[in-house]
């Protein structure tokens, strides 16, 4: 039996050398042995008893606790490494942000300088074009002035005839002292003519505005009158509708009045019947009619009590008559059977 057990086990490898040097290899082999799936012989299979299952669960729990401890230690080490990497990434991010800000500032300054240079070049070009246009306009103006000068010289020569005419007018009419007075008189007459023409034009414009306002007011009043006509038609339609509804409600009210009158008549008959029944019951019971004529509730209570008493009396009489009938029937049967 012992030989078979030794055959089933693996051969033991004894390390050579000092035991201290073999410690690392020993622990490594222990870890590999713990991680390897153990294969037990066929005859060494644990029986599925509660104790065995509990032991297996306890062993699995211990292995899970050991793995959890290892994972927690590994998580702590990884956390330290990740924190260091995260701090390094934060520092690189700050450096990148600072370099990006400085680079962005440098680009913005260069862009601003370029924009200022472009605006200055554009402004200088516009100033140059404006100066060129002004120079060209001045040249054209000088040419126009020279043309006007030549034209005025020709006109002065042409107007010499009119000057001689004005001088002759001054000599012939003593109210004019000089030719300028004649021109002033002409300008005054022309101004008066223009003033009259403007006043006439203004009056005509005022008349036209008044005509337009009258036409607009007439159109507005027409539309207002049409709206009033529509409103009146709508009100008439609503009045007819309301009048029809009033007629319907009056008919309904008359019907309700007739129904109320009929109900009132029935109520009076019922009250009279209740009062008469109450008086008869009081007379039958030899009781004084203490209830007032208008207190129908108390009268109905007395009537209901009398009716309940009559019903009880009827039940008792019916039961007694039934008992008497049964007794009579039994007596007849006994007599019949005794005679037979």
Taken together, the total number of domains comes to 3
Number of extended strands = 0
Rg:
68 Å
Q: How does the overall form come out from the CA principal axes?
A: flat
Mean pLDDT across the residues is 80
Distance between the termini: 113 Å
Estimate what percentage of residues fall within beta strands: under 5%
H/E series: HHHHHH
Helix/sheet category? mainly alpha
For this entry, what is the oligomeric state of its chains? single chain
Proportion in helices: over 70%
* Number of H/I helices: 6
Poorly predicted spans: 1-6
Biggest sheet character: none
Describe the structure.
With 340 residues, the chain is mainly alpha-helical. The protein folds into three domains: 48-172; 190-262; 267-307, no CATH class. The protein has helices at residues 2-8, 23-35, 50-158, 160-172, 179-285, 296-339. Helix 5 (179-285) packs across helix 6. 1% of the residues are buried. This is Coiled-coil domain-containing protein 42-like. Keywords: Coiled coil. InterPro entries: CFAP_domain-containing, DUF4200. One of its GO terms (cellular component) is cytoskeleton.
């Amino acid at each position: 039996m012992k030989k078979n057990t030794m055959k089933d086990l693996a051969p033991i490898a004894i390390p050579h050398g000092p035991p201290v040097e073999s410690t690392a290899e020993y622990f490594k082999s222990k870890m590999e042995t713990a991680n390897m799936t153990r294969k037990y012989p066929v005859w060494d299979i644990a029986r599925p008893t509660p104790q065995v299952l509990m032991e297996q669960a306890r062993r699995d729990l211990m292995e899970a606790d050991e793995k959890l401890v290892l994972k927690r230690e590994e998580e702590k080490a990884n956390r330290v490494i990740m924190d260091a990497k995260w701090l390094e990434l934060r520092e690189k991010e700050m450096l990148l942000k600072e370099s990006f800000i400085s680079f962005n500032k440098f680009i913005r300054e260069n862009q601003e300088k370029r924009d200022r240079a472009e605006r200055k070049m554009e402004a200088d070009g516009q100033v140059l074009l404006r100066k060129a246009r002004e120079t060209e306009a001045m040249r054209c103006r000088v040419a126009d002035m020279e043309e006007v000068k030549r034209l005025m010289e020709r006109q002065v020569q042409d107007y010499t005839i009119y000057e001689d005419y004005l001088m002759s007018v001054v000599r012939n009419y003593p109210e004019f002292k000089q030719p300028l007075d004649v021109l002033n008189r002409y300008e005054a007459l022309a101004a008066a003519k223009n003033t009259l023409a403007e006043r006439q034009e203004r009056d005509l414009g005022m008349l036209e505005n008044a005509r337009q306002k009258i036409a607009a007011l007439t159109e507005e009043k027409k539309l207002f009158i049409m709206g009033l006509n529509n409103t009146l038609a709508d009100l008439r339609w609503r009045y007819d509708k309301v009048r029809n509804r009033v007629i319907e409600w009056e008919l309904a009210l008359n019907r309700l009045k007739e129904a109320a009158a009929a109900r009132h008549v029935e109520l009076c008959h019922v009250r009279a019947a209740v009062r008469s029944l109450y008086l008869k019951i009081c007379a039958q019971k030899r009781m004084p009619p203490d209830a007032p004529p208008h207190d129908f509730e108390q009268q109905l209570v007395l009537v209901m009590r009398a009716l309940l008493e009559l019903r009880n009396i009827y039940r008792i009489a019916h039961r007694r008559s039934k008992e008497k009938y049964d007794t009579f029937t039994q007596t007849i049967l006994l007599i019949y059977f005794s005679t037979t």
